[in-house]
Each structure stands twice: as C-alpha cells, then as structure tokens.
User: Which sequence fits this backbone?
C-alpha cells in the first residue's frame, strides 16, 4: 500500500475557539484513500454514533446521550497528550463525476492519551483495510512530526514508543481483528493489564497491551529498529 508523504497544513474548517484548547492542533494529512483532519466540537454527532454502537465499543460502556459525546470531545481537546484525527474517505473520480455529497467521517484514529493510541471505525467500513491504512498512516505522520516523541509526554522513556490496548481476544472477533491490525503495523505484545469492566463492574478484565518502538528507538541493550515506509 502506498502512503503519501504527510505534510502538516492548517485546517481551514477549524474555528478559533477550537484552537484555544490545549490538545487542539491544525495538522492534516492523507493516505492513499483517506483524509485525516482534526477532531472538532461539531463532530459530536459522529462521535455519538460511534460511541453508542455496541459493535464498535463491544467491551466498554456505550453512550446513551449526545451530550456525552460533546463532553468526550472536550475532555480530549483539553488534554495536552491528545493528538487524534477524524478520517474521511477521499473522493474518487467517480464521486466527483456524480457530484456526490461531502465526505462523511468514517472513524477516528490517534492518541487519546499519548503514548497510548487507538482507533474506531464505523462498521459499514470494516473489512476494507481502512483500519490498517489509518494506523499505519498515523504512525508515519506522528514520528515524522515528533521524531523525539510528543513534547507533552512527561517521561523520556515513553517518548520512545507508542502503545495500544485491545479488548479481550477470547471474547469478541473485533478484538482479534484489532490485534491483527496492530501486528501489521509493527506492534508487539508487551504485557497484560487488569482493568475494571465498565459493562460488568463486578468483574475484572485482563487486557493485552501492545507496543511499537519509534524509528531509531529500541529498549536498552537491543539493536535499534527502523520503521518500514
């Protein structure tokens, strides 16, 4: 898969009020089939559609009110360790010829609390390779933009890698699919962490944690690795 060279550029759609948030940014980039632009407060409807879908959030509690989506967006934009993007399908020549409507957001990818990253994708777009393309594109853009790690990450060691947490692989095919995406993008199993089950509070979940070292970085005592482009 060919990934276009991402170049930071101002996002003209972003309002001045969004720029004042600590976690807001004005970067955008694209891959072969997808456009990535900053998450905004006016994305409440799409965030609610994603966060209220039990197919998408199969191992965490789902939203029941749209106000929860706005609070979720605000919380992330107010975090200095937030660096995520909404993803849209790039229009094809056929779309332009047919005067199709403006592209719709199909998912979100990036860092919700760096160095931890994640992604969500609308079920209608599963099975097309978009998740792998999005995660690969984000990783490439992230390390090109922050070769020394995001400046808001407080610990030097954590600046050297990205990590991701998946759902229990024995409980849902979505978790196994996510693990496959992460492995394709260079992540390796790091450890397991225990977490309260937000759906069944009386239970505990053991969740796999995956890690991908940045270009030129590796654990002490191991040879440096270089990300494939």
Assistant:
């Amino acid at each position: 898969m060919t990934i276009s060279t991402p170049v930071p550029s101002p996002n003209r759609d972003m309002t001045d009020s969004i720029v004042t948030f600590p976690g807001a940014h004005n970067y955008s980039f694209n891959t072969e089939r997808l456009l990535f632009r900053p998450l905004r407060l006016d994305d409440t409807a799409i965030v609610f559609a994603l966060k209220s879908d039990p197919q998408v959030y199969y191992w965490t509690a789902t939203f029941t009110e749209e106000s929860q989506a706005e609070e979720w967006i605000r919380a992330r934009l107010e975090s200095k360790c937030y660096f995520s993007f909404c993803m849209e399908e790039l229009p094809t020549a056929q779309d332009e010829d047919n005067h199709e409507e403006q592209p719709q957001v199909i998912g979100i990818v990036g860092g919700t609390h760096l160095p931890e990253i994640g992604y969500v994708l609308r079920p209608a777009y599963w099975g097309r390779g978009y998740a792998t393309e999005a995660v690969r594109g984000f990783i490439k853009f992230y390390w090109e933009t922050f070769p020394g790690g995001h400046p808001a990450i407080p610990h030097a060691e954590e600046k050297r890698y990205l990590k991701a947490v998946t759902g229990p692989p024995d409980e849902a095919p979505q978790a196994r699919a996510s693990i496959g995406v992460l492995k394709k993008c260079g992540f390796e199993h790091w450890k397991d962490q225990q977490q309260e089950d937000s759906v069944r509070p009386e239970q505990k979940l053991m969740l796999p944690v995956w890690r991908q070292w940045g270009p030129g970085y590796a654990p002490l005592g191991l040879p440096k690795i270089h990300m494939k482009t």
